[in-house]
Structure formats: C-alpha cells, structure tokens
Amino acid sequence: METLSRRPRAPRGLLILFGTVVALPAATLVFLGVRLLQQDRELARQRRAETLQQASDRAVRALDDDLATLQRRLSDPSWRPSQAPPGTAFVLMARDEVRADPPAALAYSPVIPRMKEPPTAPFGELEAAEFKAQDLAKALEVSRSLAGSTDPAVRAGALLRQARILRKMGRSADALAIYDMLAAFSTISINGSPVDLLARRTRCLLLAEMKRTGEHRQEAAALDADLGAGRWQLDRVGYEYVSAQLDQWLGSARRPHADAERLAAAVEWLHQQWTRTPGGELSPNGARSLSVAGALVTVVWGSAGGRMAALVGGQEHCQRAWLTTAQTAAGPAEVSFFTAAGPGPPPTPVAGDTLVTRRSAADTGLPWTLIVTLGSDVDAARFEGRRRMLLAGLAAILVLVAAGSYLVVRSRNREIALARLQSDFIAAVSHEFRTPLTALRQFNELLDEAGDLTPEKRRIYYQAQTRATERLHRLVESLLDFGRMEAGRRPYTLQRVDAGALVRDVIQEFQREIEGRGFDLRCSVEPGEHPVDADAEALARALWNLLDNAVKYSADRREIDVSVGRTSDRVSISVRDRGIGIPSGDEKRIFQKFVRLAAATSRGIKGSGIGLAMVQHIVAAHGGTLRVASVEHEGSTFTIVLPLQEP
Questions:
Q1: Exposed, middle or buried by CB within 10 Å (0-12, 13-18, 19+), for 539?
Q2: Which partner for 639 in 130, 494, 571, 627 could form a disulfide, CB atoms 3.0-4.6 Å apart?
Q3: For the whole prediction, is pTM greater than 0.85?
C-alpha cells in the first residue's frame, strides 16, 4: 500500500557531519557575539553616565540663573509686592511690619499691626457697678449710655461690656444682637485681639450654650472661612487658639488651612533669622528650603535699605516652577528636590540599569538637594542599530543550529515512528487474517478426515467456512478500500437508500457473525422512511466497522444498541456499547489512522487501527458527520449523521 511505503532515510553520517559543521562555528560566533554585546553595554553605560553628569550641570545652572534673577528683583528698593503665583506669597518686611500679597496666603504673621484700643477711663463707673456693687441693671444703663459715644473705640468697649452684662442677666438673645453689632468693628482691638473676631468667637460660644446647634455650626463655618481668607492678621498664638476652638466646634467637617500655615511658618522663620541680631544673620540675598509639616517650602529673599523682600513658595509651586525649569534643562534626565536641611534625602530606589547622581545644596549653593536619574532607555537609540544587527546575527545562527538539530531529531523520530507503525500494523493485520484462515483450515481438515459426517454436520461446517471466507473477504476489501481512499481513488455511487432498511440488513448479517458469543444486539428504528443518498456498500461497511468496534470494546457488559432516527433535515444512525469507553482527551486521536489507544493494547484487543479512520472518510464523502460521546468505563456512542433526502 502507498500509505505504508517506507520513506528514504537520510544518511546517518551526513546528518552527524552536518550537526558538527554547524554547531562548532556557531558556538564560537555566539560566544564572540555575547562578549561584543557586553562591551557595547559597558560603553553605553559610560556614555549615559556622562549624559547624566551634563544633565545635572544644566539643571543646576538653570536653577541658579532663575534664583539669581528673582533675588535681584527682590533686592531692588523700589520693589513692591505684586500678584503672586498660586501657592506662593510675596512678603515685604520691616522690623515692626510684615505685609504679604495675597494676605490670605499666610495663616498668621510674625508681626501684627497695632490697632486702636478702647481707653479705660470711661468705663470706671460701669465696672464698679458690675463688679463691686453687683448692680447689673445700673451697669447695663451705663453701658447703653457709653454705647452712644462718637468714639468708635469707646463705643466698641461699651457694646462688648453690655453683651457681657446681658449674658449674666440671662438675656442671651439680646446679647447675640449686641455681638452682631460688634462684628462691624474691624479697626478696633481689645487686648490685641480684633473686636469683630472676639465678637464672632463669643457668639459661637453663646449659640453652643443655647444649644442652637444648626446656627452654631453655621456661624463656626463662616468664622473658619473668614479666618482662611485672611480677614484678620493674627500672630501664631492667636491663630492657633482660634483654630483649636474651630477644631472643637466643627470636628472632621473643618477644612484645615495647611498650605497657608506652612507658608506662615516659613515667613516667621525668615523674620526671626533677619531680626535675631542687629546686623542680621542672613546674607543680603539668599534662598533656603524648609521641611514644614512634612512638605517642602522654599524661601527666596533679597534685602536693601533696611527692609527684606521674599517670595515664599509651597511644594506645589516648587514642582510647577523650579522643578519644571530644572527638568527642562536636564532633559532627558529626571530631577527631584529635597530640602537642604536635615540628614539628606532618603535612599532612592534604582530600577534596573538606572543611573542616579546626588547634587547637595552645599555643593551647588541652591536651596535644595537635587536627585537626578537617567533611565536605561535614555540614549539607547545610538546603540540600538548595532545591537539589533548583532542580535539578529546571533538569532540567525541559533535558528540555524536549532533548525539543523530539529531536522536531525525529527528525521530520526519519524523513522522510528514509521518503523513502529509498520510493525504494529503488520502484526495487527496478520492476526486479523490468521483468525479466519485458522477456521478455514480446521474445517477443511474436519471435512477431509471425517468421511461419515451427516448432511446436517456438513452443512454447519460449510456455513462456518462461508462465514470465515466472508470475514477474510471483508478484511481484504477494507484494506484495499482504505488504500484507495488514501490515494483519493475510491469512487462512491450515491443512490437513494432507506437508512432504516440498510441498518436492519447489516445487523441481521452481523448477528450471524457474533452468534454464540453472548452479545445482546438490539435495533430501534423510528417509524417511517429515512431516505438518504448513499453508496449502500460503503455505508454498510462503515456501520459494520462501528459494530465490530462495539463488540471488541464491550468487555463484560455485552449489550449493543443501534438506533435510527430523523429530524427535519437529518438522519442519525447511532451505535452504543457499554464497554471500556474512551479516556478524556483521546476522542480526536481515535480517528487517526493506525492509532490504537493504550487501553486496547493493555487488554489485548486486536485491530488494524484503520477502522474508525475509514468510517470517518466514508461519512465525510456522504456529506455527513461522525460524532462520538464517551465516558471512560461506561461505554461509547458513535453517531453517523447524514442529510435527509426527500422520498
């Protein structure tokens, strides 16, 4: 048969020579290529180190120029605060005055302006009546008289005392009205605290005492908003006292003014450094970075004519302005800032082949310590072409070696597999032929030696010889048909056939084949006709092969069911056994030619390995499909599905 023809072997010596000739030079070239790649990588790293150093120098120069320009501007005696960028404040200092633009940028100030205080003399009679005589009614009358004064300071002092007296008298609602009036006094202070702030704080306390919770929270929220907007210029102590009260009143609902507090702390530091000694401890022009509440704050100053001007910027401005300047100059390197004070920046994690350099404030004169990094992908294009060429050459060599090795191994494995298939097939076919030939020889010997056989005995022997001959004929025809199928020369003559009648005929003939072997073969055909276009001989052979397989693999449960059914457009012929089944995952392999599963070999089940391949070929030639459903140790069901034809 053509399918069993032996393929010519490649000369073993030639294959070994090919492997040797390819492998040794290839190994040498691969070694040299790897060494060249290592040297190229070292050169690239050195170039990147130079690029990193140049990038850090450019960043330092750009920042130094930017800060120098800003310091010259601040040192100009004619300079006055203007609109500051977001997240910053321009500050103009004298020994006893600090002005910021915008005012809301600073939560508090190291120097607060002096405001007019009420005189004490006009309130002697009032305080005597209130505290010494405990005559609240008289004290209230005196306070009302003083509240009509044309002096705003006296009037504010009188109203504040009047509200206090009303609270003592239990007239909280009237006191609230007085505090509302005091909220309009923005230029008067009592003991250094603005009267309007004092009135609003006291109003919040009074609302809390009156348990008017909604109004109390609303008043506290408004007070917090005005405090954050810079309505009052307070010192640190006054600001922290009011903030503590607001924290108590608003709790988690309060929004902290963290940025303004950080800038205020930096301004306070600058003012303290400038005013610590008569001559001052700061250089006339300079810059410094501080860590305030875990965030970076940068102060740049310039002084002239007994005054100090400064720009104070938070971390957001540092990122937006100065870090952008450094990043633009240092490109393609990456720059990050740390404060100049303290033990220095934390260790910077380095990924892969990333290079890092640290430029401290002491080395650069900048207010920050700079960390400049250069990734492994930077400046890689310069070496990429050569690396690609080297890698492509190495890949080609490896592919050649791998392909040669694969061809050698594959050729050898194919020879071994082909030899094994030939051996297994010949053994299986020999056994299949031996069984009917042995039966023929035995019955011939019986007929020759037993001359006194009765006619009935002879008829039985002749029938047995006929069955053996038919089996032998089927084997030969199967092999010949399979060879023609493989070569594409098997013709099919399609005619209108009743699938039900064809199945009954095949089963009737097959029952004679398995007679006496204990099989229960049942057939079920749905009523009606089951017309299909088929080559009756080929379709019968396909069904016979399925029945033969069912017998071989039935094991102890010798029950076989054959059923014929139809749908609107299909006719199905199913053969079901209750045998050993098919292992999961092997359902497709069983249709490959010459393939026999391990279970069949271990149980000594004989077969040529072409039966199911032939069935699939026949069914496909009829325009149908062959399906299998199987559960290991429970049996298998093979179903032939063919197109239904009109009767």
A1: buried
A2: 627
A3: no
Residues 215 and 244 occupy one common structural domain = yes
The predicted structure's pLDDT at residue 5:
39
Shared domain check, 359 and 287:
yes
Can you give the pLDDT at residue 491?
Answer: 79
- Alpha-carbon Rg for the chain, nearest whole angstrom, is 53
> In this structure, are 355 and 447 located in the same domain?
no
Nearest to 255 by CA among 229, 233, 235, 237: 229
Q: Is the residue at 379 inside a domain?
A: no
Q: What is the CATH number of the domain that holds 463?
A: 1.10.287.130
Report if residue 172 sits inside a domain: yes
**What pairing do the DSSP bridges indicate for beta strands 355-359 and 368-374?**
antiparallel
Tens digits of residue pLDDT in 484-535: 666 556 678 889 999 999 999 999 988 888 888 888 999 999 998 899 999 8
CB 282 within 8 A of CB 301: yes
Helix (H) or strand (E) holding 455: helix 455-487
Q: Please report where in the chains the tokens 């929004």 appear, as a residue.
A: 255
Amino acid at 48: R
Question: CA-CA distance, 516 to 581, in Å (whole number)?
Answer: 24
Residue 102 CB burial class (10 angstroms; 0-12, 13-18, ≥19) = middle
pLDDT more than 90, % of the chain: 15
Same structural domain, 353 and 468: no
Identify whether residues 521 and 637 lie together within a single domain.
yes
Q: Provide the residue range defining the domain that includes 403.
A: 390-488
Euclidean distance between CA atoms 179 and 15, whole angstroms: 107
Q: Is 374 within 8 Å of 333 (Cβ atoms)?
A: yes
Same domain, 369 and 401: no
Q: Which has the closest alpha carbon to 41: 384, 392, 398, 396? A: 384
Q: If residue 519 lies in a helix (H) or strand (E), which one and from where to where?
A: none
Q: How far is CA 335 from CA 324, 339, 358, in A?
A: 9, 14, 10
Which tokens in the block code for residue 600? 């069949």
Give residue 442's pLDDT band: very low, low, confident or very high (50, 70, 90).
Answer: low
Three-class secondary structure of residue 276 per DSSP: coil
Residue 174 has pLDDT above 80, yes or no: yes
Q: What is the dihedral of CA 52, 58, 62, 64, to 10 degrees?
A: 90
Q: The dihedral of CA 536, 537, 540, 545: what is its sign?
A: negative
Phi, psi of 181 (to 5 degrees): -65, -40
Q: How many CA atoms lie within 13 A of 160 on its CB side?
A: 27
Q: Which string of b and e fits 399-411 if b means at least 16 CB within 10 Å?
A: eebeebeeebeee
Tokens of 603: 């149980």
Residue 89 covered by a domain: yes
CA 442/CA 460 separation, integer angstroms: 13
Domain boundary among 205, 237, 255: 255
Give Cβ neighbours of residue 457 (< 8 Å, ≥ 6 apart). 450
Q: Which of 255, 290, 306 is the last residue of a domain?
A: 255
The answer to whether 533 touches 502, Cβ cutoff 8 Å, is: no
Render pLDDT for 71-107 as a digit per residue (tens, 0 to 9): 999 888 888 887 888 889 999 988 888 988 888 889 9
Indicate the SS3 state at residue 27.
helix
Q: Kindly state whether residues 432 and 395 are assigned to the same domain.
A: yes
CATH number of the domain residue 520 falls in: 3.30.565.10
Residue 335 has pLDDT above 70, yes or no: yes
Q: Edge to edge, what strands does the sheet with 520-525 contain?
A: 520-525, 559-566, 570-577, 635-643, 625-631
User: Structure tokens of 502?
Assistant: 């064809």
Among residues 344, 343, 281, 338, the alpha carbon closest in space to that of 308 is found at 281
Cα 93 off chain centre by? 54
Show the tokens assigned to 481.
């048909």
